[in-house]
Amino acid sequence: MLLLAAVLLVGLGAWTYYAVERSLREIRANTLGTELEAEVRALRASVNSQASLEALREIAIGERGELFAVDRNGTLLSESRLAPGQKNSVLRSHLAEGVAASASAADAAGRRGAVLEPYLNHRGEEVIGAWRWIPEKQIAIAVEMPEAQA
Questions:
Q1: Residue 139: strand pairing partners
Q2: Is the pLDDT of residue 21 over 70?
Q3: Residue 23 banded pLDDT, cuts 50, 70, 90
Q4: Measured by CB atoms within 10 angstroms of the end CB, which terminus of the chain is less buried, N or C?
Q5: How confident is the model at residue 1 (pLDDT cuts 50, 70, 90)?
């Protein structure tokens, strides 16, 4: 009987852990998505896309998060707020891979994505990120923030 109770407790603990993890992922995805949507709308409505891209540098997402623009190849099209001088450099991250896939997507759902498992960004920090591909501008607006901040 005691063994059965122990097995049940372990099973309940594992189920609770995975349920909490799933909820945290949803919260992180919603946080990142909310940050992106306003900027995507503003860029779509913008007459001067270059000025809008430069303005991304001024937007702080907490202390260490940032918004930026990339093309389908992962090239930074806007200056990094936290690592100046990296404009036109090519990102090598899970986010860049996701943007490349989204640029080829035929449907609206495929034009957005998120990486909620921490990865190293262009500044060498462990972050999570999300993006929205804007086909009419041929760019993606992306947000990255440290996992602990999300």
A1: 134
A2: no
A3: low
A4: N
A5: low
Q: Averaging pLDDT over each range in 21-25, 61-65, 71-75, which range is the top one?
A: 71-75
What is the average pLDDT score of the chain?
76
Domains of the chain by residue range: 2-149
Q: By the 8 A CB rule, do 147 and 134 touch?
A: no
Superfamily in which the 2-149 domain is placed by CATH: PAS domain (3.30.450.20)
For every residue of the chain, DSSP letters joined together read: -HHHHHHHHHHHHHHHHHHHHHHHHHHHHHHHHHHHHHHHHHHHH-S-HHHHHHHGGG-EETTTEEEEEE-TT-BB-S--SSSTT-TTPBP-SHHHHHHHHHHT-SSSGGGEEEEEEEEE-TTS-EEEEEEEEETTTTEEEEEEEEGGG-
Q: Which two tokens stand for residue 61?
A: 């997402």
Q: In a 10 Å sphere around its CB, with 0-12 CB exposed, 13-18 middle and 19+ buried, how is residue 118 labelled?
A: middle
Give residue for tokens 């907490």.
Answer: 62
